[in-house]
Amino acid sequence: MPESLVVGTVRQAIEVAIMVSLPMLVAGLIAGVLVSIFQTVTSIQDNVLAFIPRAAAIFAVFALTFPWILRVVTGFSRDLIFRLPEFIR
What is the CA radius of gyration of the chain? Predict the structure, then answer.
């Protein structure tokens, strides 16, 4: 099996992982920054107040983007299975 095939497949897997996780990470980042600003302005320092909005934002974005995530991961898996004979050589 050529090294370029392995490197290309690993690169593609990393790209898919980043592309799939990026919307949730951005939602968590935005929610965290907004909660931090709110906590700074009101002088409320509560760990639950910092965690729950962030978790809710991540879950909401996950629920909204799940069909797209499923299509991307399924497409990558299908391409990987179709290219399986190339890996065996």
Answer: 19
Domain boundaries, the chain: 17-88
DSSP class of residue 8 equals H
Instruction: Give the span between the Cα atoms of 39 and 33, in whole angstroms.
Output: 10
Task: Identify which of 81, 82, 65 has the alpha carbon closest to the alpha carbon of residue 19.
Answer: 65
**pLDDT score at 24:** 97
Q: Please measure the distance between the N-terminal and C-terminal CA atoms of the chain and give it in whole angstroms.
A: 6
* pLDDT tens for each residue of 30-49: 999 999 999 889 888 888 88
DSSP 17-47: HHHHHHHHHHHHHHHHHHHHHHHHHHT---H
**Which residue, among 24, 21, 23, has the nearest Cα to 55 in the 3D structure?**
24
Cα gap 47→39, rounded to integer Å: 10
